[in-house]
User: Fold these one by one.
Assistant:
Number 1:
Amino acid sequence: MSEKANNEEVDYNYLYDDGDRLITRTGDSFRDRVSTIDRKGHRVWVYPHKPKGIFHRFRILTSIILLVIMGGTPFIKLNGDPLILLNVIERKFIIFGMHFWMQDFFIFALSFIALVIFIVLFTAIFGRIWCGWACPQTIFMEMVFRKIEYLIEGDGPKQRKLDESPYTFIKIFKKTLKHTIFFALSWLIGNIFLSYIIGVDELFHIISEPVQQHTAGFIAMLVFTLVFYGIFARFREQACIYICPYGRLQSVLLDKNSIVVAYDFVRGEPRTKLRKDIDPTNAGDCIDCSLCVKVCPTGIDIRNGTQLECGNCTACIDACNSVMKKVKKPKNLIKYASINQIESNQKFRFTTRIALYSVLLIALIVLNAVLIGSKSDIGVTMFKAKGSEYIINDDESISNLYTLTLINKTSEKMYIDIIIKDIPAKVKLVGTDKIVLNPNQLMETAAIIEIPEDYIDDGKLEIKVGFYNNGKILNSLKTNFSAPKEKEKKEKHENHK
Ligand code: SF4
Ligand code: SF4
């Protein structure tokens, strides 16, 4: 159903769902479909007008800072290591100089849960500020690709006209230029993305050396470039609407207390056009100019209430403020506000929901800090060698063979000594005299532990093994040592006699 502009013909009753969320104005059909899909299921291409205003200027500034951080971080090194490395291929992670391996997965799992709680809490209070101000997809789309598009093809209406016009030299030139720049930028973004995974040094090898030497890396580079080009040249806002899980969760994360980009319907309705033939008595402040809709990069009408497509980009706030200035009415008809604020002028409330999320988040942060603080510099696993049995030596001692996996989680070389205190045990390395672990090295080796028979009761003993570097203990673990049982020992002694 198409929307009627004349307030006399439309019944503006606001309806709320069970969760008290504004769902519709009577008669509207906007909840039945997304704004960028027409009734036949075809994509509706959005040609947003250029945004301008104070919020947009702040967003440009924020975006520049974030782009510099995003692009510069892979080049920053700490003790020779990248500041951040998320090498999912080799399962190696460095975050602010701290090395994490898959053995530290529980820290990652807890951090991830803490991040989810933080997002839920942050969204419950501030709505989708992340989407509009800090999400890389929004920053690249609105502050980089869209700006280039405006520069080459002009404002939204001009772009529409160009798309609808037949192919001419100018159109082909503009489209080719735009897509060439888009592709080059996608390659750059793809490379930045890749450098977070493999590090800048490896990336430079892929770029500077023959393709045959880095086939997998080159394919990854190409795939990332094509994916980013596809997203920014064609898919655009659809990524936020259909793919981003955060966007899809908004309906359960927000409530009437959350601060979102919202239309002040109390002040704005009944919306009334500025026309001589319409009586302005009892008219709301909205003059139904539709500028807020025209600037929206997701093609929605914020006057319909909070919607899945709204990325809180603030373009409609700027647009409406410029209109309000022209018609000499107070600013902020569209503003950052909660529905409670708009409806009943209610200030922000610290609800039970927010309190519970906060307590949970603080508990998770403390737990994570403790775990990170107590994280060992080396990771060790030690198991009895598969299929091996104890060996009784001539000097009445018992030997067990173990396999060891050691990981150096630092950027320093380590010389590892394996020491068992409390009992006179000997540790003999197999195939090497010394364990030398290079930075970030994973080493698999074997060791024989010998313990005098007298120290072992009834066939087994739990031993505590320490791993030292320059006399400093780095890690320790407990493992089982097996030996003959009492009965077997007696039999052996009798056989001797
Ligand atoms: S409704 Fe406003 S804040 Fe939301 S996406 Fe559209 S322009 Fe941005
Ligand atoms: S820009 Fe403001 S005045 Fe114009 S339609 Fe939107 S809310 Fe109404």
Number 2:
Amino acid sequence: MPASTLAIANQKGGVGKTTTTVSIGSAFASMGIPTLIVDMDPQANATSSLGLKKNPGYGLYEPLLSGKNLANRVLSTGRQNLWIIPSELDLAAAEFELSHQKDYLIKLRKSLSSLKKDYGLRAILIDCPPTLGLLSMNSLCSADFLVVTLQSEYLALEGLGQIVDVVKQLKNSGANPELTLGGIVMTMYDNRTQLSYEVWLEALKHYPKETFKTAIPRTVRLSEAPSFGKTIFEYDRKSPGAIAYLSLAKEMRKKFLH
Ligand SMILES: Nc1ncnc2c1ncn2[C@@H]1O[C@H](COP(=O)(O)OP(=O)(O)O)[C@@H](O)[C@H]1O
Ligand SMILES: [Mg+2]
């Protein structure tokens, strides 16, 4: 069974990418699905959200530039079925250095390819930085599916067209012919506001097949969990955020994992 690779991306910051990556990764793991999280953001929020220290020299930077196998960068998260390739601040410099290299779009894909077999992985989730630079491009070139998180707020859909165009370009140029817009997740949904509902309707109108049925509510528990280095399931598994992410994980499993 080959692993499916999902890039969780949006060029805006603070729209729930990292929260979604970590929550879906741990939900998959709890369902018995061997899962790897790749932290592609130099801010390393996914790394710290799982309670791991940022460790200079142990991230993606060096293997990404050299194109070497990533096996020795995979860390246990201390949770069954869940591994991570952590990030480090140095990754920011990799963006510039990559631009001078041949094959600069598919470095990550090359490095990841042999890993999939080694760990018997079934899902790889890549947490992208809030830009459309080379780190995000490498993530998209490694992915089977793009998952966009949309904050349920005014102008949320602005910028979605841009990332969808990037998918088309990467597909048509042959950089990643397999890539598809796999899904749109509504995050920080507030069901007391008309605005959240309108943004959701708008997403459904333009992307009826891609928009997930489960919307992630805005809840303080989801914002508290990372500061304890805990996933939402470890922090408060009965909270509305945990219930929503578990439901989203089931939708994703059905759609993306075979
Ligand atoms: N559904 C939610 N409800 C409340 N706070 C959230 C929710 N999702 C994310 N957050 C918080 O919002 C901030 C931005 O989320 P994050 O996942 O880091 O976004 P991104 O990775 O897109 O920058 C973080 O402090 C996070 O804890
Ligand atoms: Mg993030």
